[in-house]
Amino acid sequence: MARCAAIKANGERCRLDATEKHDMCWAHAPENREKRRARASRGGKAKANRELPAIKTLLQDLTDKVLAGELPTGPAAVANQLINTRLRAIEVERKVKETDELEERLSRLEDLAGHQRKPGGTRWGT
User: What distances in angstroms separate CA 9 from CA 6, 45, 48, 74, one per listed residue?
Assistant: First the structure.
């Protein structure tokens, strides 16, 4: 089987096998674009969904130890700050991903509008 003809973002050629239908692998074939986007979108959500329950458990353990007198409040406060920092990082990551998805959608809409552009018209087809 032949190698995929796609060039990756880092400039290297893809090392996966091409499908019989194309000179590209499944991951680079144009007709799979929407499927790839859907999988990537679910992947990002799944990561956050795994992290949040772990953080909630950690906070509950921290609270239980402080209230039981097993952990001094100083170290508990520092741990709580670190947990909050992690939560902020998760939220920033979510916002970046959401922004990237919106930019992609906007770009596609602009491309569609561009195909309907009148001669001498604006970018939005007026």
Answer: 10, 24, 26, 46
